[in-house]
Design brief:
This protein has one domain (4-139): Hotdog Thioesterase (Thiol Ester Dehydrase, Chain A, Roll). It is α+β, with helices and mostly antiparallel strands. It has helices at 4-8, 57-73; strands at residues 22-27, 31-37, 83-93, 102-113, 116-125, 128-139. Helices cover 16% and strands 41% of the residues.
Length: 140
């Protein structure tokens, strides 16, 4: 289990844009499982949407990307580097994520060629799919 401080040793994101709270497990270069505890105090709920707070889908995707970054940037040869979005494919939003939800984030690296790779991404709340798709990344 990695806490926020240990996550920051692997990926460069910082508050308020560090979108994962803990990493349950990871295999460098292969996969990672992380969690985001969605609090009513999140900055984005002030405007998305007043009286009906819903976590923006793009931030769920960013949470998944950061989870994948833990897997890929924890490889010895990628330490100190960054993983940037190269593309998003087959992405589907299935469930709203709201304050009080514990978002489980799972990314499995399914393809790597040089600095480019693809991760199969799945976000769930209480076992129900919120988001799933593929994320392409570039190591820089």
């Amino acid at each position: 289990m990695l806490n926020k401080e240990q996550i920051k040793e692997i990926i460069p994101q910082r508050e308020p844009f560090l979108m994962i709270d803990e990493v349950e497990e990871y295999i460098p270069g292969e996969s990672a499982v992380a969690y985001k505890n969605v609090s009513a105090d999140e900055y984005y709920f002030k405007g998305h949407f007043p009286g009906n707070p819903i976590m923006p889908g793009v931030l769920i995707v960013e949470s998944l990307a950061q989870t994948g970054a833990v897997a890929i940037l924890s490889m010895e040869e990628n330490k100190g580097r960054n993983a940037l979005f190269g593309g998003i494919d087959k992405l589907r939003f299935k469930k709203q994520v709201v304050p009080g939800d514990r978002l489980k984030l799972e990314v499995r690296i399914i393809k790597k060629k040089g600095p480019i790779g693809i991760g199969e991404a799945l976000a769930t709340v209480n076992g129900k799919v919120a988001v799933k798709g593929e994320l392409t990344f570039a190591i820089v």
